[in-house]
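For reproducibility, we list the full input for the S-adenosylmethionine complex.
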Amino acid sequence: MSYYSGKLAVLQSEDVSQVFSQDFADQLVVPCYESVTKKTPEDFFLTWRNGELKLIDKELLKKGGLSVDINPRNGEQRSWPAPKEGTLAQAIGRKTKTVIDATTGWAQDSLHIFRMGYDLRCIERSPIMLALLEDAFNRLEQLDWMQRLKLSAPQLLAGNAIDVLAGLDDAPDCIYIDPMFPAKRKKSALPKKSMLILRDLLGDDLDREALFEAAFAAATKKVVVKCPDHAEPLGGKPSVSFGSKLLRYDVYLKG
Ligand SMILES: C[S@@+](CC[C@H](N)C(=O)[O-])C[C@H]1O[C@@H](n2cnc3c(N)ncnc32)[C@H](O)[C@@H]1O
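The corresponding predicted structure, in tokenized form, follows.
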């Protein structure tokens, strides 16, 4: 039985053939439907709209749905490489060359890191997120500036990062982790719809301490942990932290 059974289905679309949808649903071990009715038990659907793979919940069915956004964030310079500015760049550091994002999710941090010119690999364990990321990285490679600069999308590694990092032949300078922490009591940054959906579908990342240990063992220079203001530092006292009231990047230097 699939981990997603009762939660997720594939919805056929005019964008792809019925056989393609069915194969995709078989890979995820979830049902494939022609349409959704009130009686459909699942709350989440993967489907193709406007040339993109989208994750849709019942509420959003008539709206656009969510895909991995490959566009630069507001205010980010639209050149490559973009300047290494802001708290994320400060945490990763100017001397760092190679980075692994061990918790890629919607890839907003990954794509920011990639656009700043770091040599990036991405790990993700959720088959749903992997499907959305594969679709996004294919779209990224079609962009004019990517083609003009002959750039390839970051390499996507599937699996639990704890195992993937332990088996690396070529360790990166820096490993970046942004696991899902439990939701907070009072005031905190309002999570985006995309993050709420991830929490609904995947739950909190309960093995985040083991992930930190694996990252610290594997990185050659540093581990950067993104966490909400209220969270205890994942690896004890960090060497240095950057951030604002609602969000921190804790940096753990090696040696
Ligand atoms: C909070 S989201 C990351 C959001 C991401 N930084 C972004 O900018 O969109 C956490 C993601 O990490 C993945 N993840 C958590 N622990 C993992 C692990 N041990 N191995 C691989 N992926 C993991 C989860 O499946 C989820 O997609």
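The longest strand covers residues 222-228. The mean pLDDT is 91. Both points were considered when choosing residues for closer inspection.
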